[in-house]
């Protein structure tokens, strides 16, 4: 597969779906002032490259992962970048934020059991060099969540942008 960077139109299409996952190709085309065929072609290309996919989930609890867990990680300041990268590479962790304040790092993930949370903390996170302490909090009721504020972006999109991938084929 040829590596290319996402262009401005690809980003706008993704952003449009982030705001309204039910938007039609026609609505997006009108919004972005391009043809419906252009939108359809771009979406197919993004899907084929596994940069986007569509899933209908009423609640994360219906996705087979009933426990939203926040992990506050205290660590040696000089080790924060390496620890953050190690957390990013753990498939169970969906969000990693480097912090100023109570924690050095805040990580979030969806877990199918509390045993799984316990295991990842003891056997993987606490063993990372520089980790001093891990505090876990489990969400019991989401009052409000808006993906445009705290969006957890697909790892494939982040990797594509980091590696200079573009959705346009160059001939």
TrEMBL record:
<dbReference type="InterPro" id="IPR019887">
    <property type="entry name" value="Tscrpt_reg_AsnC/Lrp_C"/>
</dbReference>
<dbReference type="InterPro" id="IPR011008">
    <property type="entry name" value="Dimeric_a/b-barrel"/>
</dbReference>
<dbReference type="Pfam" id="PF01037">
    <property type="entry name" value="AsnC_trans_reg"/>
</dbReference>
<protein>
    <submittedName>
        <fullName>AsnC family transcriptional regulator</fullName>
    </submittedName>
</protein>
<dbReference type="InterPro" id="IPR036388">
    <property type="entry name" value="WH-like_DNA-bd_sf"/>
</dbReference>
<dbReference type="Pfam" id="PF13404">
    <property type="entry name" value="HTH_AsnC-type"/>
</dbReference>
<keyword id="KW-0804">Transcription</keyword>
<keyword id="KW-0238">DNA-binding</keyword>
<dbReference type="InterPro" id="IPR000485">
    <property type="entry name" value="AsnC-type_HTH_dom"/>
</dbReference>
<dbReference type="InterPro" id="IPR036390">
    <property type="entry name" value="WH_DNA-bd_sf"/>
</dbReference>
<dbReference type="InterPro" id="IPR019888">
    <property type="entry name" value="Tscrpt_reg_AsnC-like"/>
</dbReference>
<keyword id="KW-0805">Transcription regulation</keyword>
<feature type="domain" description="HTH asnC-type">
    <location>
        <begin position="6"/>
        <end position="66"/>
    </location>
</feature>
